[in-house]
Write a structure and sequence with these properties.
Length: 264
C-alpha cells in the first residue's frame, strides 16, 4: 500500500488530514471500507489551491467508532461535530458512496453550513431489488463472516484488476475493522431514502458524479439528483465504475476543481 498519511485527531477521536492553506475549505468523506488514503490523488492536487480536510469514517482508519447501532443520522451528527471541533465554519464537502449519503444528510439538515456539495458515486432511491441486495450484504457483514474480496467485483472492471487503484482498495478492505465496517454498511444499506427528498430545497451548487459502469451508484441516479437539485449538474465518467476517483483521478479532480468555481 502507498505510504500512510500522517493524521491528527479531534478531541472526540476522529482522525483527519489537514493539507493546504489557501482558498475555501474542502472536506472529503470516503466510503465504507476505505480510509483517507483513498483520496490521495485529490488531496495532492486540490491542496495546491485549497485547504483540504480528509476524515476517516468512524471505526475506519484511526477514527473512534460510534457506539451502539448507529444509523445514517448518527453519522451525519458525527460529521457536524467534526466541522465544529475543527472550527471550519462553512465548507465545501465531497462525499464518496457512504460519504455521499452523509454529505446529503448535512445538506438536508444544515444547508447553511455548506458552500457547495459534491456526491461521488452516490446512491439515490434504490429499486426494491437493489435495496434487498444491499441489505442482504449488510446482514452478512454483521455476522463477521463476510467476503472482503466481494466488493472488488462490483467496484472495478475486469481490466482494472492489475491496477494500483485495485491493489490499494483491496488492501484497505483487508485492513478495515470488522465492527466499524459492519456499522457503516448497515447505515449505508438502510439510509438511502432518509434524506433523498432534500434536493429541491438545497441552493448550494451540487455536483453528482459517477462512472458509467457503476451498477449500484448509476448514471441515472446522478442525473435524477441533478434534476431534483436547484443548482445541480451531473457528470458521468465513461469507462469507469465505483472507485472512479482512483481509476480516473485526473478527470475527477478536474471536475471537482471546476465545481469549486460554481456560484449559487
Amino acid at each position: 500500500m502507498s505510504q500512510t498519511l500522517q493524521r491528527s485527531k479531534t478531541p472526540s477521536g476522529s482522525a483527519y488530514v489537514d493539507r493546504g492553506s489557501g482558498g475555501e475549505v474542502l472536506v472529503l468523506i470516503h466510503g465504507v471500507g476505505m480510509r483517507i488514503e483513498a483520496w490521495r490523488p485529490q488531496i495532492e492536487q486540490l491542496s495546491i489551491r485549497h485547504r483540504i480536510i480528509a476524515v476517516d469514517l468512524p471505526g475506519h482508519g484511526s477514527s473512534a467508532p460510534l457506539m451502539g447501532k448507529p444509523d445514517l443520522s448518527d453519522f451525519v451528527t458525527w460529521f457536524g461535530a467534526v466541522i465544529d471541533e475543527l472550527e471550519l465554519g462553512v465548507v465545501n464537502v465531497v462525499g464518496h458512496s457512504m460519504g455521499a449519503l452523509i454529505a446529503t444528510g448535512m445538506a438536508a439538515t444544515a444547508p447553511e453550513r455548506l458552500h457547495r456539495i459534491a456526491l461521488l458515486n452516490g446512491v439515490y432511491k434504490r429499486t426494491i431489488e437493489a435495496r434487498q441486495a444491499v441489505e442482504a450484504r449488510a446482514n452478512e457483514i454483521v455476522t463477521g463472516a463476510f467476503d472482503r474480496e466481494a466488493p472488488l467485483g462490483r467496484w472495478f472492471a475486469p481490466n482494472e484488476t492489475n491496477s494500483d487503484a485495485y491493489r490499494l482498495v483491496r488492501e484497505l478492505l483487508q485492513q478495515v475493522d470488522a465492527g466499524g465496517y459492519a456499522a457503516a454498511y448497515r447505515a449505508f444499506a438502510t439510509g438511502d431514502t432518509l434524506y433523498c427528498d432534500c434536493w429541491p430545497a438545497v441552493a448550494s451548487p451540487a455536483l453528482f458524479l459517477t462512472g458509467d459502469g457503476d451498477p449500484n451508484s448509476t448514471p441515472e441516479m446522478a442525473k435524477d439528483m441533478a434534476k431534483a437539485a436547484r443548482n445541480g449538474r451531473a457528470v458521468v465518467i465513461k469507462g469507469h465504475r465505483h472507485m472512479v476517483n482512483l481509476t480516473a483521478p485526473e478527470e475527477v479532480t478536474a471536475a471537482l476543481a471546476n465545481w469549486l468555481t460554481w456560484t449559487a
